[in-house]
């Protein structure tokens, strides 16, 4: 397919929006033209002999496709929550072109055949690229390491027991040694189980007000500190999942300053909400890590700004309405994220002037690609044509009934946001469009 995207704003090398036309051929960005040359002139000059699909960008932002390195697609085993087909559809609607799915499925993604199943299902779906993680230990029980070499050969991109922390330090050190020998990353859910049993929210104002056991900040930071030392000893690429506390950030910043190979991620909800925002015992506000204090929120924001935290991920975690209806103490942890992430962050940080648009786009595209060595996340001549078109001016109310995800569990219902994706392209193919914006030339 040959695509010609005309009249779109792209971020230039100075972080400024520049009206441009983009020519895509065989899944590759062949040329980016300045708007001084009209779209009609380009079509006359270069369109001969091509069947061209023309897309009018109408001044909207054309950005690299968003990359989410922490998602839950639930399949196999939990298809009532989400399937690979519904999850990738939701991702495409959110502007995502590459997503990495966690292994806490049923069966757990701890064998090559499960990795292959996920890749096959993704191939059958709507085109969004799915990169599976494999488990560190069989059944994520922390007792026996999986066959890392076999899992890598099957297509796994890293190893994690996400959903639970690896409690045994020797097990984690052995995992890091093995991963390092294969030039693979270890991705860690950092949580000391002895400090969190029976707790549903952070140890803060909301917990005290409602008489709930709280999850303390140190339950996360203890594992971060331990694993940084193990990463230094083994030389592995160590990546910290969904950072939420000031203490964890201090440790990560220190580790980076002395050259330890540690990277880290943060979720939109930990940048926007604190435990003081929780309106009541509504489990749509229950996630793990939990919403922390306003001080932790500010620490996360500052750390993303200075690069201590490398990227934004959603931790997209769909659940059924029946599961979430069990209430704050009994419902499962997690909220959906694909379809609200960009507009939430654009409205909260770019529209208010705290962040540049360039910073937001970089943390959601180029930076995850850099950390995980992906050949995506760029909008330049010769790059893979993974792209998203975003209407920065469109204002919309968050309505879970419009989600393509099976999961409607979000704390952002009713929020008025700007910056909604309207078109998503993977390898030069349109995989989702808000409306019919294309014509053949």
How would you explain this protein's 3D organization?
The protein is of the alpha/beta class and 441 residues long. 30% of the residues lie in helices and 22% in strands. It has a five-stranded mixed sheet with strand order 3-2-1-4-18, with no helix packed on it. The two termini are 12 Å apart.
Q: What helical percentage do the residues reach?
A: 25-40%
Helical stretch count?
A: 14
Please give the radius of gyration in angstroms: 21 Å
Mean pLDDT: 95
User: Given the C-alpha coordinates, what overall shape results?
Assistant: globular
**What is the spatial order of strands in the main beta sheet?**
3-2-1-4-18
Let me know the number of strands: 18
Spatial gap, N to C terminus: 12 Å
Q: How would you summarize the topology of this molecule?
A:
Blueprint: E1 2-11, E2 17-25, E3 28-34, H1 39-46, E4 52-56, E5 61-64, E6 66-71, H2 84-93, E7 96-101, H3 112-124, E8 129-132, H4 148-154, H5 169-181, E9 186-188, E10 201-202, H6 205-210, E11 214-215, H7 218-234, E12 238-240, H8 246-257, E13 262-266, H9 268-272, H10 294-306, E14 311-312, H11 321-324, H12 341-350, H13 357-364, H14 366-371, E15 387-397, E16 416-426, E17 429-433, E18 438-440
Parallel strand pairs: 1-4, 6-7, 7-8, 9-12, 10-11, 12-13, 13-14
Antiparallel strand pairs: 1-2, 2-3, 4-18, 5-15, 15-16, 16-17
